[in-house]
Amino acid sequence: MLQALESDAPGEIAVRGSLLAHAGRVQLCEALAQSYPPQCGGRFLLLEGFDPASMEDANEEQGVRWSDREIELVGRRSGDRFVVTRRSR
User: Fold this and answer.
1) Distance between CA atoms of 44 and 30, rounded to whole angstroms?
2) Any residues with CB less than 8 A from the CB of 5 and at least 6 apart, and which?
3) Which pLDDT tens digit goes with each residue over 21-63?
């Protein structure tokens, strides 16, 4: 995921991280904090084009939806957001 945060390269790249959705924002996190419900721990990407309802094996508590398993997404960086074009796996 760090490559996407630091790269200005055009075109698609693959990124991995933990998904977290809350208050209309979907984030790909470096790690999940140990709070309950969790928050992003460390750096994160704001995602566009990813439906949090499609998160497999998701947990939900107090309006926060997250997955304990990492996911790999393919897309491109657009400003401070990552536009998802597809799931890698």
Assistant:
1) 6
2) 43, 45
3) 999 999 999 999 999 999 999 899 999 999 998 887 899 999 9
